[in-house]
Amino acid sequence: MGYRWGADAVALLHFGFVLFVILGGFLVVRWPRVAWAHLPAVVWGAAIEFAGWLCPLTPLENWLRRQGGEAGYSGGFVESYLVPILYPHGLTRGLQIGLGVAVLVVNITLYGWILIQRRSDQSR
Predict the structure, then answer these.
(1) Cβ atoms 77, 91 nearer than 8 A
(2) What is the rounded CA–CA span in Å between residue 77 and residue 97?
(3) In terms of Cα–Cα distance, which of 78, 80, 84, 111 is closest to 96?
(4) What is the C-alpha separation between 6 and 72, in angstroms, rounded?
(5) Residue 37 to residues 2, 79, 92, Cα–Cα distance (Å)
(6) In this structure, what are the phi and psi dihedrals at residue 69, rounded to the nearest 5 degrees?
(7) Would you state the pLDDT for residue 77?
(8) Across residues 75-95, what is the average pLDDT?
């Protein structure tokens, strides 16, 4: 049972990390120092999508699931958990690149807005 809980904890951590990559810029608006953790997370998240790599948390979760008597899953976390929620037709390479672009667009937009706000505040 401990392995299953561990696998679930890794899956929750993984999901939280994905949310942080996508939406963490909103935290930066409120707490600018979060950018020191968020920017590297965005780079990592985008790199995983663009390169088609497997996040290291996926094999860890699969190992824990197998140790707990469950079957692991094939593919990556995004393909197994998030894509079925967002896109019912499975992950293609083009979709994976699109997800990476979306991460970058959302975050570049947020950070651009933050910089504009800061410059506006400093000029007053």
Answers:
(1) no
(2) 15
(3) 78
(4) 13
(5) 30, 25, 29
(6) 90, 5
(7) 62
(8) 64
